[in-house]
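Feature request disguised as a bug report, sorry. It would help if multi-protein outputs had a clear separator. Right now it looks like this:
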Amino acid sequence: MLLYHDPRAPNPRRVRVFLAEKGVAYDTIEVLIANAAHQTSEFRKKNPIALLPVLELADGRVLRESMAICRYVEETHPDPNLFGADPWERAQVEMWNRHAELELLWPISQVFRNTHKFWEGRIKQAPEFGTMMRELIAERFDWFESELGKRSYLAGDRFTVADITAMCALDFGKVSDIRIHAATHPNLAAWHTRVAERPSSKA
């Protein structure tokens, strides 16, 4: 398998961490967003909307969405299980992965896109919207803090893909000075320490 990725972007990292947890071997090609490598006609043959990551199989087939890639790997390499072992657990993992995507990763990415100097001159920015998203994230931190006081991981008592999504989102938030503070969110901080100590977090 061949993974097209940017080492600094959160969605490719989600896939790399997932593959590391599975112990799956793969090769990589760096497609650096800073150099607009994702906008080239050659890369757009892999993904017409110029987003990362892209997984290319040996037979030339491609998958273009992070969770689609992870689900494929889950099916082809079922151990360790990261999407849920029974109907209830699968539903919990799906729910919390979506929460992590929609309530953390998406607003954090919007703060970055709309307020960070990296994107000045590259895209149209709406700083006011970025500020609104920063306020939303603060509220969601409080919610995740409450939830993580009830269990060790997002979807239950073991590490799943939902934790991967949330970890990658929160680590990416540091670029925009969005950080967990143990004094105000001790449960969230303790969870982050647990997931960050896993070898896969370095992928």
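(second protein starts here, but nothing in the output says so)
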Amino acid sequence: MKLHDSAMAPNPRIVRIYLAEKGIDVPKVQVDIAKAENRQPPYLAKNPMGGVPMLELDDGTCIAETIAICRYFEEQQPEPPLFGTDAKDKAVVEMWRRRMELEVANPIMQTFRNTHEFFKGRIPQVAEWGEVMREAANKRLEWLDSVLADREWVAGERFTIADITAMVGIDFGRVSGIRIADDQKNLARWHAAASARPSAKA
């Protein structure tokens, strides 16, 4: 088994943090996305979408997509339960994870994709859309600050995959100048607590 990883991309970091929380060590292979190694035939033969991360099992099965990889390990090692416990808790965690992905991380990543030099000439960029997404991302940080006014973690009382998704998205926002505002005290408190966990350095 090996994890095709990229130290510079946000999605692989979600998997690394998740694995660190679980105490699971998986051999990693670095994929140089700056040199478009993930767009070359050897990689595309395993993952036609060309994204990272990708988990390659010993039997040759290749599992792409961040959450699919995490769910594979959640089934293998349920404790600690980062996707929830019983039916209700799992539904609540998934609800908040999805919100963090679509409403927080995605606008931040779309800002980067449409405004940063890294993607110039790689994909079609629409700078105006990038700025729309920047505004959306900042508004969602305001919203998340209000959500965290009455809870310790995004989905409630426990650290979960929802927190990992939000933290990685927000941290990636720095590349595009998207940051937690000075008056977002609840968000800053949560972010400090999440960042202080040893897994955050994975």
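Even a blank line would do. Unrelated, but nice: The longest helix spans residues 87-115.
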